[in-house]
Write a structure and sequence with these properties.
Helix content: 25-40%
Order of helices and strands: HEEEHEHEHEHEHHEHEHHEH
Number of strands: 10
Distance between the termini: 45 Å
Bound molecules: ligand PBG
Strand order of the largest sheet: 1-4-5-6-7-8-9-10
Radius of gyration: 20 Å
Number of helices: 11
Shape: globular
CATH topology: TIM Barrel
Largest sheet: 8 strands, parallel, barrel
């Protein structure tokens, strides 16, 4: 009885209305977080060659982009600074400057948009160090864990004081979530969230991002002593478990599409808000396929976003956020 031809799975696929009715997950502009790169100056738009269609914007331009995002229904921005070479140092101390580019951008967005949009800020030292690593290094170039965590705490408090809504540590040091949460509570920032880059892999997909923040040419070696090995999944669950226990409000998996198995396992194991970062190399792959005439941008963007939702994501960080939000309609 329960077999063909009584059962035909093509019946519900036969028309657009029925496909819409039966779609299991939806993507809306509210699922998107838009990463933006900030640069010095006024009226500056500085295109990033390896990320076609993405630019660094001076603070005034960032405010304009924030207003675009609000109009398109995007709930949150993620900010990254392109720090001038003369402000970079071995210890990345510019991260602690209350008037650094990041803090000025946060304040400008919050002044212009208030609670209409959330501001998520990346915590890690790579945009500020002269060596491009995410933390402090010893004489051999090894990234020191505990000394780095102390600086990350200061960086987090600096961003929170400027008005950041979500602190997003992307550094992969051990113990940083507990240290940052305790410091935020101590300073009265009870409602400042932490979205932890909990399962962040040492990936080949970050190249264009490093161009965007100006760290690619500076970085010697790799980040494999702190970012995860791409072969590991069980370890990702341990990373997530620890970050949740230390006080993370939500967790992130990064990169995105090559790691959807991790998203699905994290969601199943913990049932917490999980986000994925469709990173710069993933964006560049889609744009390269479009430029080569191999695929349709709109269809690829929407299909990849649907895949993230299907895997269990609450939301996705993507450089296509504004384009996607406009396609989806506010
Ligand atoms: C830095 C950081 C990176 C990204 C986000 N935060 C790069 C890295 O770890 O080297 C990558 C994002 C992207 O590729 O879009 N801590």
């Amino acid at each position: 009885m329960s077999s063909y031809p009584m059962i035909r799975l093509r019946r519900t696929r036969a028309s657009a209305w029925s496909r819409a009715l039966h779609r299991e997950v939806q993507v809306t502009p509210a699922d998107l977080i838009w990463p933006l790169f900030v640069t010095e100056g006024t009226g500056v738009e500085d295109p990033i060659a390896s990320l076609p269609g993405v630019s660094r914007w001076s603070v005034d331009g960032i405010v304009a982009r924030a207003k675009d995002a609000v109009a398109a229904g995007i709930p949150c921005l993620a900010l990254f600074p392109n720090t001038q070479p003369e402000r970079r140092s071995e210890d990345g101390r510019e991260a602690l400057n209350p008037d650094n580019l990041m803090c000025r951008a946060i304040r400008a967005i919050k002044d212009a948009c208030g609670d209409e949009i959330g501001v998520l800020t990346d915590v890690a030292l790579d945009p500020y160090t002269s060596h491009g690593q995410d933390g402090l290094i010893d004489a051999a170039g090894y990234v020191l864990n505990d000394a780095t965590v102390e600086v990350l705490v200061g960086q987090s408090l600096n961003q929170a004081a400027a008005g950041a809504d979500v602190i997003a540590p992307s550094d992969m040091m051990d113990g940083r979530i507990a240290a940052i949460r305790a410091a935020l509570e101590g300073e009265g920032h009870h409602n400042v969230q932490i979205m932890s880059y909990a399962a962040k892999y040492a990936s080949a997909f970050y190249g264009p991002f490093r161009d965007a923040v100006g760290s690619r040419g500076l970085l010697k070696g790799d980040k494999k002593t702190y970012q995860m090995d791409p072969g590991n999944a069980e370890e990702a669950l341990r990373e997530v478990e620890l970050d949740l226990a230390e006080g993370a409000d939500s967790v992130m998996v990064k990169p995105g599409l090559p790691y959807l198995d991790i998203v699905a396992r994290v969601k199943q194991a913990f049932g917490v808000p999980v986000f994925a970062y469709q990173v710069s190399g993933e964006y560049a792959m889609i744009e390269a396929a479009v430029a080569a005439g191999a695929a349709d941008r709109d269809a690829m963007v929407l299909e990849t976003l649907l895949a993230f939702k299907r895997a269990g994501c609450s939301g996705v960080l993507t450089y296509h956020a504004l384009h996607a939000a406009r396609l989806l309609g506010a």
